[in-house]
Amino acid sequence: MEAVEAERNDQNTPAPPPPPLTLSKNAQKKLLKQQRMEAKKAEKKAAMKEQKKKEAERKRKEWEEMLASVDEEERSKLIESRKCLRKERMEKRSEEREKKVQRLTNAKEHGQNIVVDLDFSDLMTPNEINSLVQQIMYCYAVNRRCASPCHLWLTGCNGKMGSQLQRLPGFDKWIIEKENQSYIEALQDEKHNLVYLTADSETILDELDPKKIYIVGGLVDRNRWKGITMKKAQEQGIQTAKLPIGNYLKMSSSQVLTVNQVIEILLKFLETKDWKASFFQVIPQRKRGGADSEDCQGEVEEGEENEEGEDQLEMKKMRTESPSNG
């Protein structure tokens, strides 16, 4: 009886948890580096927020002191003048939004077709999906700010990815192609023009062909899925190419870039027709080898900072603007 009872207890006792996965020293270093960068970024963001708050408070006090120092008639004139300035700013913003809408509408007919392939959501964690959604939002913000935007496509907008995208403010009103189907289904009549951009390709992209449709893989943490985009393109029988990064600079790590970095590089090249300038303006200094970036390091770093500020402002506008503004 004791043996039977012991056996029952063993069956009812939950199995011990598996031992924690031990990371390699290299992986631990990468994790710590990423955590330090994220902490530094959060600290910088908090400092900027506090600085803006103080600046707004200072301006408010200055305004109140100014009103208190003048008579009633002058006060009325100051208030009316301020209202007029606000009205002018609102009208200017409205005009800028209309121009952006017009540029994006024209891009549907004449812009370079660029696809973000979102068929990899099942391979990503919720945090990685959220990261990709933020990258897509960034892509749209940068594209609509361009003087000559591309015609941006999102394919595979379903499942977890589709749900997350729908949560973005005004996503339904974005002037962009949104397809639940994969690109190979949605663009089957243009299969001969499809070109998958992958770092594993042996073909170097020298120019952007207006007739081609360039595909960027929407996948975060490619290190877990090395070669997956190249394999996919080969199985589908479509062309592949890689950006000519190695011709212009050495990367301090792999040549794998985020989706928004690839899109922005393509947009810069469409504008400048200069790969080197496009790479140096978009690829962060921390990803570049030191020797290759010395000649334009100072100039580019300042440009990067300005661009980042403009793009953050653009995304903030997208969150606050009416969805009907596109």
UniProtKB/TrEMBL annotation:
Chain intervals with Basic and acidic residues compositional bias: 1-10, 35-61
PROSITE patterns associated with the record: SAM_MT_TRM10
Keywords: Methyltransferase, S-adenosyl-L-methionine, Transferase
Listed InterPro entries: MT_TRM10-typ, MT_TRM10-typ_sf, TRM10/TRM10A, tRNA_m1G_MeTrfase_euk
Signal sequence residues: none
SAM-dependent MTase TRM10-type domain ranges (all copies): 100-290
Reactions this protein catalyses: guanosine(9) in tRNA + S-adenosyl-L-methionine = N(1)-methylguanosine(9) in tRNA + S-adenosyl-L-homocysteine + H(+)
Top-level lineage group: Eukaryota
Ranges annotated as biased composition (Acidic residues): 292-312
Annotated stretches, region: Disordered: 1-61, 286-326
Enzyme class: transferase
Known EC number: 2.1.1.221
The protein, known as: tRNA (guanine(9)-N(1))-methyltransferase
Source organism (scientific name): Vitis vinifera (Grape)
